[in-house]
Design a protein that fits this description.
Layout lengths: L1 E9 L5 E10 L4 E5 L6 H8 L7 E6 L2 E2 L5 H9 L1 E5 L10 H11 L4 H14 L15 H13 L5 E5 L7 H16 L3 E6 L2 H7 L2 E6 L2 E6 L7
Parallel strand pairs: 3-8, 3-9, 6-7, 7-8
Antiparallel strand pairs: 1-2, 1-4, 4-5, 9-10
Helix pairs in contact: 3-4, 3-5, 4-5, 5-6, 6-7
The chain binds adenosine-5'-diphosphate (ADP).
Adenosine-5'-diphosphate (ADP) binds next to helix 1.
Length: about 230
Amino acid sequence: MIYYDKVSKVYPDKTVALEGVSFGIEPKEFVTIVGHSGAGKSTLLKLLIAEDWPTDGKVFFESADIHKLSKGQTAKLRRRIGTVFQDYRLIPTKTVYENIAFAMEASGRKDREIAADVPHVLELVDLGHKIWNFPRELSGGERQRVAIARAIVTQPDVIIADEPTGNLDPGNTYEIVRILKKINELGTTILLTTHNKGVVDTVGGRVITIEKGKVVRDDKEGKYIL
Ligand code: ADP
């Protein structure tokens, strides 16, 4: 479904972020990418949503070379990939409902559909009772659950979560991992980056370890080894 084919990325200041990275991801997999800060994890995810370009190699989504897509095709691709970031990226002046509704409007959903789906997706992340609150009225863990709800409401095929638990305490971290696992069980492919051993151990499953821009391990039932 996703394939990184000998991907290298050198930033304009000559920082080598990735070097000859190759691996594939099957539909419905839950893949955890681990590595120290600066190892190249975020760069890998940015390439997948065509936010940046590889210096060498190709990234495929299904049979399409992501970096050869037209603007319109790139927009379509991005609608198939939900994103969750460490810093939540909620709009502070909008309520929880409006944050999620806004994402749905952007992907062309009708008002009636929005009104029906927002409460439903909030139930899925156990936040139905916070629908009319503003982000500043929520804890970090709750904000991240809103961000996850926003990412899944348009039913993407893939969720990429870049250090989603980076700002959270162990309890909230566990909760976010539990929700991501539930979403994966419902059929969504998940690509998660972390440098947290606890997260890797809780997720289980496939772990790809990157060090200094290179894949150094790819284990079906991985452990945190750095
Ligand atoms: P990680 O997500 O594992 O912390 P990143 O992919 O963010 O790693 O970064 C990999 C390397 O590329 C680091 O050395 C980082 O400083 C560098 N880097 C990331 N983004 C840029 C950029 N826009 N310009 C220059 N260097 C960058």
